[in-house]
Records
---
Amino acid sequence: MVQGSFYLLRRKCGNPRCRCARGELHASWVITRSEAGKHRIYPVPDEARAWLRQLTAEYRRYQRARAVLVKRHQKMLALVDGLAELRLRPWPENHPPPMADLEIIEHHPQRVMEAFRRGEFDQIEIIGEADEKEFFELCFREKMLQVLAESMPTERKKIEVPL
Ligand SMILES: [Zn+2]
């Protein structure tokens, strides 16, 4: 696939005596795309027109499919978060004042290990993976997949846009 929009550009060349000045615009096939924030226009050579038309269409289909995926994942996350919310319990229940000691949770294994060796603290609690595993086990126990399947959007038909 090729990035960019494929279309017919019609324009005036600027010569006041040219036929384009009377409305017969010059037409040429181009591919436009944004590169590092700049709008670029590339002329399409005649011999590559069919090929590039196809490849840019392919890229557009990919982008549409990707947008659907992003939407689905957002929905999935919302469901998972909702499920987690339901399982969340207030603790401690009588809200005693929080501990005065500052607790820092860092996800920089190397930095944490180095600090540990320097003796900056004396205990490491491994959190993360075990919690995730437990969480996903919970998701399966709660039959989350069925819940997701029920609210999943149905597969859309592919629509070809004429060029
Ligand atoms: Zn002209």
Note: The chain has a mean pLDDT of 81.
---
Amino acid sequence: MNIPENICKKCGFCCMEKLQTEKAILINKKRACKFLKKIDNNTYICSVYDKRLTEAPWCMSAVYAYDAHALPMACPYVEILGKDGYVGPRLPRDEEEEKLFKNTSIFHFMEDIKE
Ligand code: SF4
Ligand code: SF4
């Protein structure tokens, strides 16, 4: 399947830390791949996009990220690859869910997002 690159909304969610809980896969907006750069509250870009495959061996293609349930339901790639049966990650809904992220970071390439 030919997947276009220019449909990305730059939400950055696919590059942020995730946590699988009993209820859902949660997205941590405070921690992400060290190459994710915050532009504003809704816009994040990859600072090594053109050389990400050599700089970031953990970086996932859209299809791989879809298979890993790393793309939120609103991601345009999910529209293309299929919403039926797909469960995407979501943001925490309350403080209790936010707290679950404490001490969960296990990936060396994740860093706190700079404000
Ligand atoms: S989740 Fe989708 S729209 Fe958001 S940055 Fe990743 S690929 Fe782009
Ligand atoms: S290297 Fe990959 S995972 Fe990291 S910010 Fe860039 S696109 Fe996201």
Note: The chain has a mean pLDDT of 93.
